Amino acid sequence: MAATALEGRSPAFIYRHTVLVRITHWINVVCITFLLMSGLQIFNAHPALYVGQKSDFDHPVLAMTARNTPDGPVGETTILGHSFDTSGILGMSYYDGVPRARGFPSWITVPSYQDLATGRRWHFFFAWLFFINGAVYLAASLATRHIWRDLVPSWSQIRAIGPTIWHHLKLKFPHEREYNVLQKLTYLTMVAGVLPLVVLTGLTMSPGVNAIVPWLVEVFGGRQTARTIHFICATLIVLFILVHVLLVLVSGVWNNLRSMVTGRYRVDVAGGDHG
Ligand code: HEM
Ligand code: HEM
User: Fold this and answer.
1) pTM (2 decimals)?
2) Could you give the CA distance from residue 10 to residue 250 in angstroms, rounded to a whole number?
3) Is residue 93 part of a domain?
4) CA of 180 to the centre of ligand 1 (A)
5) Which of 87, 110, 152, 201 has its CA 20 to 30 A from that of 143?
6) Hey, which of 138, 197, 260 would you mutate to test ligand 2's pocket, going by the most ligand atoms within 8 Å of its Cβ?
7) Residue 235 domain flag
8) Is residue 202 lining ligand 1, measured as CB closer than 6 Å?
9) 81 is in which domain, residue-wise?
């Protein structure tokens, strides 16, 4: 966050995000969208996850299946042995008006019809873009100390985490120069934890990388475990996005979006309004 008051303008405006953070953020949004949708296409080719080196078909961690019943086709999702009827969304959904046995529905996969080879091509194209974009962000953020300065919370912020949670529950969001402690902790978990892990587990599954660094697959306890962790990371990313976008919307949508596009952010001044 390059937080300098804009000269000649209202002192209530600051520069919140550097041009690098803004550009890499929006490239990231495009990459994640295509990675998720093409990843779900890949998942649909075999909609079940396992732990270990090999697929133990009798003991999946997660499985999506379809079966015919006297009342029509049914979709079922099984997580750790517990089954749920997910007809119409998971296991069985409609495409061109016809019921199909498929893990995730057509509206959330790229391409929409079942085609593993094309899904893989999209996935690997955006994986490279995501990797390069993330590497540029990390290298620059370490060099400029952005991560340390803006994403690692201070002790005083951590001690005041209770009141911050309480403010969030009451939907009160002060507009300050710094991210609040909850933002810092979640952003840090994403940029230093979940996003690097999704890259590493993705590389672990790639046969080319396997040949160069064979021990990577051992680190994750086998190919199937890497695939399951990759999927769990994707799920965490989706949960993050839902909460992240919801908070962007309720905490001053235009102020937030403007700051992530132009860098300009309106902070609260004593007795001032909340933008
Ligand atoms: C550099 C980043 C990434 C790399 C190298 C990568 C690589 C891979 C590979 C190799 C596969 C298995 C392909 C196959 O079996 O044919 C895969 C599957 C998948 N990826 Fe990624 N991926 C990356 C990022 C992501 C991200 C950011 C997401 C989600 C937001 C994601 C979601 C998925 C999903 C849902 C699957 C399907 C799981 C499966 O059935 O194997 N990937 N990815
Ligand atoms: C349409 C979707 C998205 C919107 C509208 C959005 C919007 C924003 C905005 C407005 C901020 C600045 C928050 C502030 O100034 O208080 C921000 C920061 C951030 N967003 Fe997003 N975002 C989106 C998707 C994503 C995705 C997909 C990711 C990663 C998976 C992500 C990760 C981050 C991170 C890590 C930051 C902090 C950046 C830093 O300072 O280094 N966002 N986002």
Assistant:
1) 0.92
2) 24
3) yes
4) 32
5) 201
6) 260
7) no
8) yes
9) 53-103
For residue 11, tell me if it sits in a domain: no
Q: How many residues does this entry show for the chain?
A: 275
Q: What is the pLDDT of residues 122-154, one digit of tens each?
A: 999 999 999 999 999 999 999 999 999 999 999
Q: Hey, what amino acid is at 186?
A: T
Which ligand is the nearest neighbour of the Cα of 176?
2
In the chain, the number of structural domains is 1
Residues 121 and 111: their CA atoms lie apart, in Å, by 10
> How much distance in Å is there from the Cα of 212 to the middle of ligand 1?
19
CA-based nearest residue to 176, from 22, 12, 19:
12
Assigned domain for 232 exists: no
User: Rounded mean pLDDT of 212-228?
Assistant: 93
Q: Which residues are CB-neighbours of 188 under 8 A, at least 6 positions away?
A: 147, 151, 152
Ligand 1 neighbourhood includes 205 CB (under 6 angstroms): yes
Per-residue pLDDT tens digits for 189-199: 999 999 999 99
